[in-house]
Amino acid sequence: MPLRVRLTLWYGTALALILIIFSTILYVITARSLRDAVDQSLEETAAAAVRSLEERGFLPLIDEGELMSQFPELARIDKFFQIFSPSGTITIRSPNVKQHEMPLSRQALEVAYSGRSLLEFAKYPKEPPLRLISVPIIYRGNLLYIIQVGTSMDSVEVTLNRLLLVLLVSIPITLAVSLAGGWFMAGRALRPVDAITLAAQRIAGGDLTQRLTVPASADEIGRLTNTFNAMIDRLETSFRQIRQFSSDASHELRTPLTVMKGETELALRRPRETDDYKVVLESNLEEIDRMTRIVDELLFLSRADMGEVKMEHLPVPLDTLVEDLHRQASLLGQEGDIQVVLRTTAPAVVLGDELRLRELFLNLLDNAVKYSRPGGTVDIALTIELGHAKVSVTDHGIGIAQDDQPQIFDRFYRTDAARAHTKKGTGLGLSICAWIVESHHGRIEVQSQVGEGSTFTAILPLAPASTKRPLAGR
Amino acid sequence: MRILVIEDETKVGCFIKRALDEESYAVDLCEDGAKGLQMALNTNYDLLIVDLMLPSLSGLEILKGVRQARIQTPILILTAQSQVDQRVKGLDAGADDYLTKPFAIDELLARIRALLRRGSTESPGVLQIDDLALNPATREVTRGGQRIELTLKEYALLEYLMRHTGRVLTRPMISEHVWNQDFDTFTNVIDVYVNYLRNKIDRGRSKKLIHTIRGSGYMLKAD
Hints:
The complex is a heterodimer of chains A (474) and B (223).
Chain A: H1 3-55, H2 64-70, H3 73-76, E1 79-84, E2 90-93, H4 106-113, E3 118-122, E4 130-139, E5 142-152, H5 154-204, H6 220-268, H7 274-305, E6 314-317, H8 318-334, E7 339-344, E8 349-352, H9 354-370, E9 377-385, E10 388-395, H10 416-421, H11 429-439, E11 443-449, E12 453-461
Parallel strand pairs in A: 7-9
Antiparallel strand pairs in A: 1-2, 1-5, 3-4, 4-5, 6-8, 9-10, 10-12, 11-12
Chain B: E1 2-6, H1 10-22, E2 26-30, H2 33-42, E3 47-51, H3 59-68, E4 75-79, H4 84-92, E5 97-100, H5 105-119, E6 127-129, E7 132-135, E8 140-143, E9 146-148, H6 152-163, E10 169-170, H7 171-178, H8 189-201, E11 210-213, E12 217-220
Parallel strand pairs in B: 1-2, 1-3, 3-4, 4-5
Antiparallel strand pairs in B: 6-7, 7-8, 8-9, 10-12, 11-12
Helix pairs in contact in B: 2-3, 6-8
């Protein structure tokens, strides 16, 4: 059932219930208070009649003309009275009931003998419903008379009937009007929700540039709209990143494919010397290695993105690691006559994965050697600062332009200079470095001047002081 | 036919150059965008092959630079991106054709032939003058139905002459379109090759097709 219908039904049911309860209470209270008013006036009239009879010493009963002058209010209002003898026969009655036959009820007679008054409803043939009060007059223990005062309940009944009619008509009308209003209001309140649904459908259809119009009010719908738009923003960004990433990845993979396809086709176009084939095969092998490296690194990064790369959380002595890597990098540098120098070191232990940290520093050192000029130097420094270990690798090579620096950690980003300098890079090494540093809760920074060289600094939080230094040679 | 290849991937550029060399084209290779544009503007190439992703100056900027200089040389763009918008941008910027990497060498060569043909509308593929015919697709040369075997350079020279029949072609023009930038213009190599061609085409025939224009150069004509 649509929300609009449900809202309206709930609203209508609640309102109907309230109206019915209210009307019932109103009717009952009105009926009771009307009857009470009648009863009170009957009692007062009866009391006045008894008082008047007492003044006259109860004797002898006068004719009705005199009686009327005694109780003038009886003529004006619709009350009548009758005086019965103890046997229940009428001795005197007021002129307005002369023609009517309204004997004393048995119950009234019995109650009179016990000395109490009685209020009762009476219905005689051809008479409107009556309310009667019967009061006994007792003198020295003997029942002398029974005075009965009565009035028609006609006007009360008419009033109550009219009230009932008003209620029965007005309740459905009120309910109908309210339901219509509720339906309209619910529709109005739900219209922005419909707009959101439509927009969401368009976006689900693939158009991520769509945005919802934000209403001016900061109500629930406004907040929903803002949340929704923020979500689409993030979706659009990540979709764009994925598109960029896959386009970059396909470009990086296409280049070695182009080389392999082109060189192989060219070699097969006509018969050639064995050495020519060898050259092509060697070149193809290089390209296969390059593709393998790209695929491996891509796989690592995508597993890292999915949180599937297992990371150790063990104490790693950085100074030992850096000394070890210094030896390794020195070998790397020999080919290009590049000296790798360990400038400063300090005892430092961090919590992390030794293999990954080794990969991180080896990547940085490999880059430094690659981008150094022949005969140049690469400096390594390990220092401690404010609870962090700082490992920096400095080369004096081609450097990185200021504009390129923010993007060098992006996947597949390679500066033109880097592309021209070495054909071997995949454009993923620094992304992996950044990921390793971040998964150790550290950060990586770069400082560089074109033509003067670059310094990459990995800043890692030190292990708590209580951490035991692992045994050397682990 | 002289072709400039601007491609920063060394290996890709190298095999394209080798393939074109074997097809007797004169090829210059450049790995840098800005340098490539200078070369394209300074030398009268018959065709440019331009990679779109280049250091210092993108392929698109080279295209725009060349067309702004009112050079109508056909341009073939190479792109690693399979995205349509890159190709559209390239074609709109003045490229005549494109190839997506990786590509087949045969397709590259066929497209180059098609682009070179476009310059002279009257030639539908096979070049013909009198009873001498040259088919660029098969590189078959015949005179009077008789097949003539030519070396790569001889073929290149003949193709250039046949594409410009009835016009005087100076030695600098010939060297510019038949040899690449490594060629030393101060030798008599051109005269030597023209003589080779004469021996194979005109010798023993009553009608000579290759004519020497004294003090200027050479001309290929039927009468």
